[in-house]
Amino acid sequence: MKTKQKWFQNPTLVIAIVIIALIVLMAAVAFLWTPMDPERMDTAHRFALPSAQHLLGTDQFGRDVLSRIMVGSQNALLVGLISVSLGSIVGIFIGAVAGMANSKISTVIMRFIDGLMAFPGILLAMMLVAIIGKGLINAAIAIAVFMVPSFARVVYTMVLDIKSRLYIKACRSYGCTPIRLVVVHMIPDMLPRLITQFTASIGGAILTESSLSFLGLGIQPPSPSWGMMLSETRQFILSYPYVAIAPGVVLLITVLGFNLLGDALNDMLIGRD
Question: 19-22: long-range contacts at Cβ-Cβ below 8 A with a sequence spacing of 24 or more?
Answer without folding.
Answer: 19/253, 19/254, 19/256, 19/257, 19/260, 20/254, 20/257, 20/258, 20/261
